[in-house]
User: Fold this.
Amino acid sequence: RTEDEADSKSMERFGGYILNDLSLIGKMQNMGWYRGQAEDAGIFYYFYREDKEQGLMAELNFSGTYVAGENEDVTVLDVKFNKKISELSDRYFSEIVMQTAKAVSSSQERNEHWKK
Assistant:
C-alpha cells in the first residue's frame, strides 16, 4: 500500500483502465466477486466481495453495464473498502490488489482523465 492510500478507504491505482464488460464480468465472477445491485434499466456499476469472518468488504466500481453485458468497453474507477486501507491486513489488501490487477489485465487502454 502506498502512503497516499493508507488513510483512505479507496484505492484508485487501477482507475481509468478500459476493458470489455464481458471480460470484466467473467473475471470478477470467476474470482468470487458478486455483481452489484442492478439499477434502472438493469444496469449495475460495481462488484463486491465480502469476508464476513473478518468483517471486511471490497467494492470495485466501474462505469456500468447491463446485467448480461453488452460487449462494450467499460472504465474501472476504484476499489472502495469498508475500513481504511491502513486497517486492512497485508494479506487481504494484497489479495484485492492481485484480483483487481487480474481483472484489468486485458486492458489495452487507460483514460488518464477518468475522474472527470
The two ends are 25 Å apart (CA to CA). The CA atoms of residues 7 and 75 lie 25 Å apart. The first helix runs from residue 3 to 6. Helices lie at 3-6, 21-30, 90-103.
